[in-house]
Amino acid sequence: MKVTIVGAGNVGASCAEYIAIKRIASKVVLLDIKEGFAEGKALDLSQTATTLGFNTQIEGVTNNYEATQNSDVVVITSGVPRKPGMTREELIGINAGIVKTVAENILAHSPNAVIVVVSNPMDTMTYLTLEATGLSKNRVIGMGGALDSSRFKTYLSLALGKPANDIQGMVIGGHGDTTMIPLTRLASYNGTPVSQFLTDEALEKVAADTMVGGATLTKLLGTSAWYAPGASVAYLVDSILHDQHRMIPCSVLLEGEYGQRDICMGVPCIIGRKGLVSIVDVQLNATEQDAFNKSGDAVRAMNEAL
Ligand SMILES: NC(=O)c1ccc[n+]([C@@H]2O[C@H](COP(=O)([O-])OP(=O)(O)OC[C@H]3O[C@@H](n4cnc5c(N)ncnc54)[C@H](O)[C@@H]3O)[C@@H](O)[C@H]2O)c1
Asked: How far apart are CA 87 and CA 180, in angstroms?
């Protein structure tokens, strides 16, 4: 099973590392435009194989798409990350050109690959990739909701003082500081609604912290985060390659689901070998649906700007 990661920067390299450590694929190709950079990252990562006990072959290449031939999954992380004070949306101009060219190159060499889009603004980049490649909607998946949900569960675990792996929760909507929707009503601590343990104010704070989770890290680190984004991509790739049918919130083309059409946005998806298997229709209440509609308006405005 072969995975190509375009962009060997912070997120791309961290994703390659988790794919290898978790033995998700037998081969990972890292591709970057910066001369020698992907080669260096791949060599460094390969030298952890004996200490960490994995056999994944990691190859780095500079803009050589021949090496990506016949990948099962291709992850696009190429582009510019956020700097402190920037929104994801401000990256649109630069990243659109990069993502479009990369998507076309990928398809020419891996006609059957499932494409995972990570570059921001992710919902718009996913829509652009879908348009640029003409692929069916099951094969173009935006990763954002997996990361936002893991941040949500982390903040819930901190508020509850309970282990993160005992918490279930999902974030849907757009992958932006003001557009994502942490579904606090449906979050649970081992199947028990978290509202039984946390006040409304505490839950509102968890939701607010989740929404600015990326910006908080960008401020602390001086650039956007990579461990949790890389791990979230690896988690998604695992479900694709191993046909796990996990339910993961992903940005996919909506055709009437959740009241939206002709837009890519985060909704709960079943993810398997062919990419998107189906969209799960979680019953939203009126407040959540209203938030989803507003989120859709914002994502649509971004697509129009593009
Ligand atoms: N969707 C999410 O949840 C999420 C999370 C974190 C970051 N991101 C986004 O992912 C992207 C990457 O973030 P990062 O922190 O890894 O940035 P980074 O700067 O560390 O890495 C980006 C890499 O892309 C490379 N690149 C640029 N143009 C290229 C091209 N045409 N072909 C191949 N490689 C090219 C650069 O040389 C660089 O190495 C950003 O757009 C960031 O906003 C998304």
From this structure: 13
- Letter for the amino acid at 62? T
d(CA 263, CA 287): 21
pTM greater than 0.90 (yes/no): yes
> 44: Cβ–Cβ under 8 A, 6 or more apart, which residues?
none
Using most ligand atoms within 8 A of CB, pick from 30, 32, 147, 223 the residue to mutate for ligand 1: 32
Q: What is the pLDDT of residues 70-116, one digit of tens each?
A: 999 999 999 888 788 888 778 888 899 999 999 999 999 999 999 99
Secondary structure string (H, E, C) spanning 129-168: HHHHHCCCHHHEEECCHHHHHHHHHHHHHHHHCCCHHHEE
Question: Residue 296 CB: number of other CB atoms within 10 A?
Answer: 21
Q: How far from 95 is each of 16, 44, 212, CA to CA, in Å?
A: 21, 27, 21
Whole-angstrom Cα Rg for the chain = 18
Read off the DSSP letter of residue 3: E
State yes or no: cis peptide before 121, omega within 30 of 0.
Answer: yes
Is 245 among the residues known to form the active site? no
Q: How far is the CA of 35 from the centre of ligand 1 (A)?
A: 15
Across the chain, where does the E strand assignment appear? 2-6, 27-32, 57-62, 73-76, 114-117, 140-142, 167-168, 171-173, 180-182, 188-189, 192-193, 246-255, 261-272, 275-279
Q: Which atom of ligand 1 is nearest to the CA of 38?
A: 39
What span, in angstroms and rounded, lies between the C-alpha atoms of 38 and 167? 36
Residue 144 backbone phi and psi in degrees, to 5: -160, -45
- CA distance linking residue 27 with residue 24, whole number of Å: 9
Q: Which atom of ligand 1 is nearest to the CA of 78?
A: 24
Distance 10 CA to ligand 1 centre (A): 7
302 and 124 in contact (C-beta within 8 Å)?
yes
